[in-house]
Amino acid sequence: MKRDKRFMIGLVGVAAVVSYLIWTGVSDTMVYYLTPTELVAKVTADPAFHELGVKVNGKVVEGSYERSTDGLVHHFQVRDLENEDISFAVVYRDVIPDTFNDDVEVVLEGRYRADGIFEAHTVLTKCGSRYEASPEELAG
Amino acid sequence: MIQLGELALWVALPIALWGTVIAFVGGRNRRGDMVLSAERAVYAVFLLTVLTSIAISLAFVEDRFDFWYVANYSNRELPLFYKISGLWAGQRGSLVFWVLWLSFFSSLAVWQNRDRNREFMPYVTGTLLTVMSFFLIVLLFADVYPFEKLPFTPQDGRGLNPQLQNYWMTIHPPTLYLGFTAFTVPFAFAVSALLSGRLDASWIQVTRRWTLVSWFFLGNGILFGMRWAYEELGWGGYWFWDPVENASLLPWLTATAFLHSIQIQEKRGMLKVWNMSLVFLTFIMTIFATFLTRSGLIESVHTFAQELRIAYIFLTFMGLLIAAGVVLILWRKDDLKSDNQIQSFLSRESAFLFNNLILLGAAFTVIWGTLFPLITEGLTGEKANVGPPFFNRVNIPIGLILLALTGIGPVIAWRRASKRNLVRNFLKPVAMGVGLVAVLVTIGTRDPWALATFGIGAFVMTVIVVEFWKGTRARARIEGEGLARAFVHLIARNRRRWGGYIVHAAIVVIFAAFAASSFDTEVRDSIFPGDQLTVQSAFGHSYTLTYNGLSTSRGQGDWVIQWIALFDVERDGERLGTMTAERRFYTDSETPSSEVGIRSTWYEDLYVILAEVADMSGVLGGQAGEAERAVIEVQVNPLVSWIWYGGLILTIGSLIALWPTEGRARSAGTAVGEAAEPATGPAAVTT
Fold first, then answer.
1. ipTM higher than 0.90?
2. What is the CA radius of gyration of chain B?
3. CATH assignment, B1-160
């Protein structure tokens, strides 16, 4: 079978462009998904991590929630799911999810600033159980 | 009745397996009676699945909470409409629903070819039944049995996820499934062509039409999903690059590529291996989409569950499909040789080829981004992911190149475009594109991607309009018809081509709407009754909303708490009327849901979100007298309705292309005539 040279050139050309787009896209937008413990370890090891966007999965510290009088700025503490000693302050200036309360598991997206405050641009609450229930749950 | 449906599901599997075996054996030994028996097995599986589906819906209607599936997706207060559609509300039912459509399309294909394409039918039937058997095995043995009983009968069910209680959500999944399952037919014909060695144009004829059916449903399914997201998820967007959305986009992209490259094979006898690979790839993508939706491999807003066994079964099936594709294509590679070579870079062949490579490139970036968390975790042990910024960055340039090709492909000459061909066909369109960009820059538009989209869009639109105009005028002159009559006859004479152009126009309209989203405007504030919010739109209108307070009520038998914010709306000082934005809390499942207020016009949508209610949750509640304080977000989203209009145009174009051509014998022999459009293409129309 005679190879179609132009086909190959086109293929290589498009592959190169797509790879370039993916490469730059990934390096500029990739977000690490960490636990608070990992995040704290990362920034201690490399302060450049303060500038990177990260996703963090933790738990809101009970009783730490406060909102500004106009209701638009939210402050709370988030701690590691396993290690209660690792925690940091979070500031969030957007609409808080309805399922948010001060005892919920959250996924934050944002930046862990050098002053030790996590500036979140997204707060998602993680429901404890999946939507589908086990038979035991239905019984209760 | 419910027991009967359950029994039907068990009976369906042995029949499907029997049919599979006998179809392949009958095909090999040229035993017509065996093939006929296999074809009857297809009809039988369809009828049995109908029974199973009715049984599941009936279990919902009768509030049979002793069934695990019903208990999890319904409750007594659920409106009847959503009980019936409970069949496809969750993983287990959707798999039944999948088999239902698969067996329906299979039956249709078998019936349609009852006295033609007989040489293909044994292996076609066998392949269809293989896929059906696979899904039946999953249903019966992969921990997703839809009739699983609970050891007790709960008082009430858990209710349906409120976000799924939306009109668009009830038609979005079925439409997607129609698209996914319909593609099994082209796949079956491809497998049959490879197995039987009949690799001439005839399998392409059947396949093209079925691919178009599948493509049409996939496209509409995706659009319905966008509509649902826009109305129900309440942040003004319609596309999230969520794994499940991506999964439905993948087969659409590869099917689009196939619909284009198939024309190169029909007209120039090229790209045969490529086309075969695309059929396999698209089919694998439909299975991959089901797999992503149903296995919960990657976290997503609407993945159903996280059963592992089903994940392995699907992965094995996909692995087998890939292996089968590679082996079959290599086996027949001598019969899949190209009759021709690309002669010039400036030719329709090469434009189509580019379109294909780029569509596949787009599909690849989507797969990459979707599987990125798995890839990085596998390679580096670190968890990381990429979100919408990645997909937008990568796919906007790719999308624009594709859009430009939409304009170039139809009018560039086959084989080798002359300078004259290029100038004659592209001078006006390019001038229109540049002209529009110049006008937009003058009135102050600066966003480079939006400018590029509008410019290229104008170019493509002009190409299409000029083509229609040239064709109509030529016909009017030759046949002595009036312009309107000539226009209708023109389309009727070559539905496939003109339908395709209409679809291209729809794509331009939809792309324009996407680009316009960079001009969305919004304000958000925490306000009390009597306060006003004002937002300027990109089209220069000024909307003022006066907040008239909050009313609270209960619905669906006290299960749902509703907060409704009332507004008076003015545009440029002129009163438009009232609007409401709602927030609901479903106490049974403890899930909130928002019902945004939308006032839609053809050029912009006013979109009001009741973002927060002060007294919704104890911890968020403020001081006394704050009960009616609410956080309100008002957006003006330009050109959003163009997406839905685009969907309508897309439907019209697809139906024109699909409409059966009258006066042609129903045999495969004459169907070739359809492909015999003058190879010189549109240039011939004008001369």
1. no
2. 27
3. 1.20.120
Looking at residue B140, its pLDDT comes to 94
pLDDT of residue A27: 84
**For residue B24, pLDDT beyond 80:** yes
**Number of neighbours of residue B21 by Cβ within 10 angstroms:** 17
Instruction: Read off the pLDDT band of B666 (50, 70, 90).
Output: very low
- CA-wise closest residue to A117 among A45, A64, A63: A64
pLDDT value at position B425?
Answer: 85
How far apart are the two ends of chain B, measured CA to CA in Å?
67
pLDDT tens-place string over residues B647-664: 999 999 999 999 876 544
DSSP string over B236-302 = S-S----HHHHHHHHHHHHHHHHHHHHHHHHHH---HHHHHHHHHHHHHHHHHHHHHHHH--S--TT
Q: Could B365 and A24 be called an inter-chain contact, meaning their C-beta atoms sit closer than 8 Å?
A: no
DSSP states of B637-674 as a string?
A: EETHHHHHHHHHHHHHHHHHHHSPPTTS-SSHHHHGGG
Q: From B322, B394, B331, select the one nearest B364 (Cα to Cα).
A: B394
Which range has highest mean pLDDT (A119-133, B474-488, B636-650)?
Answer: B636-650
The three-state secondary structure class of B198 is coil
Contact B394 A31 (CB under 8 A): no
Are the beta carbons of B361 and A102 separated by less than 8 Å?
no
Distance CA B618, CA B601 (A): 39
CA distances, B26 to each of B44, B114, B299, B628 (Å): 18, 16, 45, 74
Q: Determine the average pLDDT of the residues in B45-51.
A: 97
Q: pLDDT-based confidence at B210, cuts 50/70/90?
A: very high
Q: What is the pLDDT at residue B488?
A: 92
The CATH class of the B520-642 domain is: mainly beta
Span(s) in chain B for CATH 1.20.120: 1-160
Q: What is the pLDDT of residue B223?
A: 95
For residue B687, the model assigns a pLDDT of 29
Spell out which residues of chain B touch residue A102, defining contact as CB-CB under 8 Å.
619
Interface with chain A: mutation pick from B264, B383, B589, B594, highest number of A CBs within 10 Å: B383
Enumerate the CATH 2.60.98 domain ranges in chain B, comma separated. Answer: 520-642
Which residues on chain B are in Cβ contact (under 8 Å) with A64? none
pLDDT digits (tens, 9 = 90+) for B430-454: 999 999 999 999 998 889 999 999 9
B524 and A72 within 8 Å at the Cβ level: the answer is: yes
- The structural domains of chain A, with segments of one domain joined by +, span 1-30, 31-126
Q: Average pLDDT of B362-378?
A: 88
Task: Please list every residue in chain A whose beta carbon sits closer than 8 Å to the beta carbon of residue B161.
Answer: 131
So what's the pLDDT on residue B372? Answer: 87
Interfacial B residues in 615-674 facing A (CB < 8 Å): 616-620, 622, 629, 631, 633
Tokens 């038979």 belong to A135
Q: Which of B384, B526, B611 sits opposite A31 (nearest CB)?
A: B384
Q: Does B592 touch chain A (CB under 8 A)?
A: yes
| Cα separation values, B170 from A8, A107, B77, Å | 45, 29, 18
Cα gap B271→B263, rounded to integer Å: 10
Protein fold of A31-126: OB fold (Dihydrolipoamide Acetyltransferase, E2P) (2.40.50)
Disruptive mutation site among B150, B330, B390, B395 for chain A (greatest number of A CBs within 10 Å): B390
Nearest to B617 among A25, A101, A132 (CB): A101
Phi, psi torsion values for A32, nearest 5 degrees: -75, 145
Residues 6+ apart with CB under 8 A from A64: A75, A76, A77, A102
Question: How far apart, in whole angstroms, are the C-alpha atoms of residue B580 and residue B565?
Answer: 5
Nearest residue to B577 via CA among B566, B592, B561, B593: B566
Residues of B in contact with A32 (CB under 8 A): 382-384
